[in-house]
């Protein structure tokens, strides 16, 4: 059965697998000290135009969020995030399990803005009993957001400025960063992110890899003994090469960006097709996640032929559902889907 | 340069990679709900002759230990382990980060025995202020141990009996389980482990996989919402298939056992060769880790031609070093090494 | 300067101090195994008409909340609470530091209702990826609430029924329970609480003691090794008698209830006085916390003569402030205050 | 029945209770912002001759240890302590519950020395995989130790020097500090401790107070938002005055030191008496805890007339038991005890 359920339904891009094959029997040291990891790091640093960047490869997004937030926050601090942020909702309490509160701000299409953050910080420090409350110690955003939307360069610059003013780090969850970078509406380049964020990650689990996220500290701010922290959180692979090789493939010959472009192209095709057939979007998402309002009867019929994600109830007759394209989506699959609707 | 540094220097066995290739573009659901994971679980259950076994695949050993120990222990409990146990020494505090003390017992060649455990439990409960101390709530052993040694069936049966008497789970860390199972000296079968342990894992990161451990709850004792606990600890792969496919390959056609046998055969060859040249062992290890006492001058010379692990100082002139064979070790490599010494 | 800042501005009721004096040099065992603690427990159990109640005395409210929530929840669970609940806002992240998320529900005058709880539970379990979210594992309410309001017997019964249906405990924070019990509007007796809640505490820090809360498990549901959990959280007093003696005094001769009555009487006097002078209340609180809307200029003047708590901004000219009466408030003090306004 | 079971069998010194009475109805602000707390802090700072000292009052020793260790350590660090240290053995896992490993060193009569600490640090950093192990991030000692012994000025100076060399804090648990300070054998003054330790506490629960420890940061090194950390650990008393008043009494007119002297005098009397009757000591303790080797038959007889603590088995016929004197012990009580033996 055809699936637009998510952007991790297939394995890895063939060039990624191929490099895994080619390098497979070379003996390398463990825990990320292998030569492929080093090469991949260099390629990414070049791409970021950020020589002082410190990079570690981790297996997944929740793990990365947990390690970053737990190691950067002081014990009395929490992380500010949109109430729709992945850390707020879908990580089974990983942040709290690490001892920290997620301090939620109401989202607008998945985003928070600089003034909300500033207000929160000001209100906190103005409160005579502020020490009875959790201190806001970091800002978490996702690019693209859980709603597929994007921060503009202006918005990101403003968020960065507030964080610098209050000396708290700005952290960007880039689980789908490639899909954001290649969106037509995007005006935030990788180099901007390296400038404006204190820490962020470039997601590959959803973009061409079997698993893997590249975590980047941009300001020589990687915590001391960070390898210990990764190990302590169960995130240190014995065969670190698994991640290094994959990122080496993805950051050679523009692969990461080219395959991200495919997801965007397929999403545009899909959106146009749905709109032509009269379907309405919940949000006019510029990235690879597309949200349509569909009649429930139609949905049931559709669900026998294609997989997608239920998002939320719209009204008694309609639901919002998500169709996700990816690096692996083909024109044929989109055409097949458009036939069905 | 030749390496006997550890048993995770190469990638994966070619049949594992091949199955990853073959299944790569099939669309599957995420988080371990894919069909390969299901097939792999069935194959393992058969092999264990334990239809009620509940199995989850996790990425690495520290992660597995942390998740098992944190979810099975009550907050006031700690885990009993040899002072040389991996959880006691080399996990960067992962168990304590999860809130639990490792209660160490003095080891004998990496092992603890039933009487030590019984004594600890009796002494604890006999203390009038036992509630001021951490309650022993689980026993952790590794098979083979960190010294390459093995629990016999008699020893394991006795440990199991004490645990049942005090109603605490017996947990076996099987990071190198295959190498233990195929050792000539071994008399503990997989089915025995499934009978005697409450929970254990079959390690594959060190035996043929890119990454992956198969965690087995043997008595319908997998904690509720265990998927949440995995997620909360950053251990839930979006592409759970990565683990499922690898275990499917390893548990088809006896692969896991055959390649484990190779490591044992190579270790025997290596040990015989060293002994013939007059080297002494620290421990007469029956598995894939071999520990030799070597003159420091010789070691320095050797270290330019081959990688190995420093284990500990023996005396002022000698060190103990470890040579590890693996599923990937060839006769040629062993011969080359024996030439050097 | 006169203070209505809170209900913990003075030391202890004189009868409490007196019993501390009288018993001071009697030698007793530590950690709550003293005879006064035992006597106090018996007196409270009688009052609750709940022979199976298990009672421990703890030092303060945040400590009590943290210990209860951490020991009763499984690691994958969070606690449902009003967004205005003390655990949600003013405990500096104590619940999260214990590893658990506070799952907030929008409050109505500080309260949540059974249908909100039921909806949350149903929605959670209906979600196909519910295991990616924190499981609701307990309901936390405060009586009176942080807004001084009270749950009626009907409301409490309904909450209790939902909790029983989903088999999660209902926990009542009774930091000011005496002031709730003696309110004219109250229809919930201590015996009802013992029936309807699974665990609750009777607060004394704010009602006559130097410090101390009596934590009650009502259904033989005190977790095993609970003394260890108290110790582990730094809550076990060497001189447990300090708490035992105070509760013995408070639960002899109806003292706890009589002095609670005083706070209520003084609050009524105060409210009537304010209203007669034309002040409006934010909430018509039936307990010892009274919230008035006051002109900012007037407030500044007032703040030089009397202490009170700023609550929140009302509009550009007005603020909401809280005046709290207590077991120690005198008619003279209220009269003096009413003179000032 | 007479008790030498411990040094917390009675309530508080009468002057402490008296000041609680006298100040009882004065209205003060909460959470340690009261005037008595301020006065007590000033008195202690004077006594320490350490104007930059930062002082907080906490309720008990385990709580203090947990808060200090959790806030000063980084997440990847553990605390070095004697294997007999209170944090290692009798705090029900409070340190591990805070996420940190206790790294034990073998004790000599309850003490560790500078060379052990230096060795541990050197060995740790020399290990090629040191980041897989818990980093030693603090040294914990107790003065007097759990065996009643004392660090000399020379020993303390050496420990301090190692800690400074490796830039890790030296923390002294002074649960019985007064009893150490007044010992005839002691050559470490309070001012030395303020110089040599980075953080320590002056215990009062066991020396004249109902409860209370004075935590001192000596180098302007109190962590930011420390009040939040106290609150988060359930250690912030609403009526902080309870602790402030008690320390104010104890540090007025030399009271803390005078009553500590009493315990030492009584311990000397007791020890001399035992020795005269032919009893042997396990350790020749110079402080208020005395450890005697006693025939088991005699012990059983004795246990019907006086309370003491079982310490450990000596041989099949003998046990080691502890008799503790305190601020409250009278010459009559000692005489009565000596009659019995």
TrEMBL record, chains A, B, C, D:
Record carries keyword Plastid: no
Cofactor: pyridoxal 5'-phosphate
Leader peptide range in chain numbering: none
Name of a matching Pfam family: Beta_elim_lyase
Keyword NAD: no
Gene3D superfamilies: Aspartate Aminotransferase, domain 1, Type I PLP-dependent aspartate aminotransferase-like (Major domain)
Keywords: Pyridoxal phosphate
InterPro entries: ArAA_b-elim_lyase/Thr_aldolase, PyrdxlP-dep_Trfase, PyrdxlP-dep_Trfase_major, PyrdxlP-dep_Trfase_small
Protein name: Low specificity L-threonine aldolase
Species annotation: Candidatus Enterococcus moelleringii
């Amino acid at each position: 059965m055809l699936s637009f359920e998510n952007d991790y339904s297939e394995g890895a891009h063939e060039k990624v697998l191929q490099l895994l094959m080619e390098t497979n029997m070379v003996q390398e040291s463990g825990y990320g000290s292998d030569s492929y990891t080093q090469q991949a790091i260099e390629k990414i640093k070049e791409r970021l135009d950020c020589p002082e960047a410190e990079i570690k490869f981790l297996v997944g997004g929740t793990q990365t969020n947990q390690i970053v937030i737990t190691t950067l926050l002081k014990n009395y601090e929490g992380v500010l995030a949109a109430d729709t942020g992945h850390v707020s909702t879908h990580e089974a309490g990983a942040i709290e399990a690490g001892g920290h509160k997620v301090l939620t701000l109401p989202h607008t299409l998945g985003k928070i803005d600089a003034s909300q953050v500033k207000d929160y910080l000001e209100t906190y420090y103005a409160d005579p009993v502020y020490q009875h409350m959790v201190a806001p110690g970091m800002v978490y955003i996702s690019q693209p957001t859980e709603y597929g939307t994007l921060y503009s360069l202006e918005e990101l610059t403003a968020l960065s400025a507030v964080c610098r003013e209050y000396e708290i780090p700005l952290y960007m969850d880039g689980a789908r960063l490639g899909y954001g970078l290649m969106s037509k509406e995007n005006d935030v380049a990788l180099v901007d992110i390296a400038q404006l964020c204190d820490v962020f990650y470039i997601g590959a689990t959803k973009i061409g890899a079997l698993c893997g996220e590249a975590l980047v500290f941009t300001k020589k701010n990687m915590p001391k003994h960070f390898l210990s922290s990764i190990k302590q959180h169960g995130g240190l692979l014995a065969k670190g090469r698994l991640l290094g090789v994959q990122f080496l493939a993805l950051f050679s010959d523009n692969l990461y960006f080219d395959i991200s472009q495919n997801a965007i192209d397929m999403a545009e095709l899909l959106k146009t097709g749905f709109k032509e057939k009269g379907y309405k979007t919940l949000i006019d998402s510029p990235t690879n996640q597309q949200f349509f309002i569909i009649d429930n009867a139609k949905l049931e019929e559709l669900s026998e032929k294609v997989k997608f994600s239920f998002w939320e109830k719209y009204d008694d007759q309609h639901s919002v559902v998500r169709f996700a394209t990816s690096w692996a989506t083909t024109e044929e699959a989109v055409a097949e889907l458009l036939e069905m609707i």
